[in-house]
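Researcher: Can you fold this with zinc ion in place?
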Amino acid sequence: MAAKKKSVKLHRCPTCGMLVKFDDEDFPFCSDRCRKIDLGKWAMGVYKISSPILDPEVLEDLGGLGSSGGNGDSYDE
Ligand SMILES: [Zn+2]
């Protein structure tokens, strides 16, 4: 009784989630249509990484550095 292990690797179309064969001519997409849809997303900037680096707290720290000038202890008479 040998357990028949059939390891079929499956891939899903990133656009519609349909199963795509690895030897499909449109791999990794299920069809040319989905490939174009995905390209369209790129073109529209959906996948664009736009994370603001300017953190309000960081800006505050930078601004506060210059305001610590006088210690107050020593003043001339
Ligand atoms: Zn698809």
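Model: Folded with zinc ion in place. The pocket of zinc ion is lined by residues 13, 15-16, 18, 29-31, 34 (CB under 6 Å).
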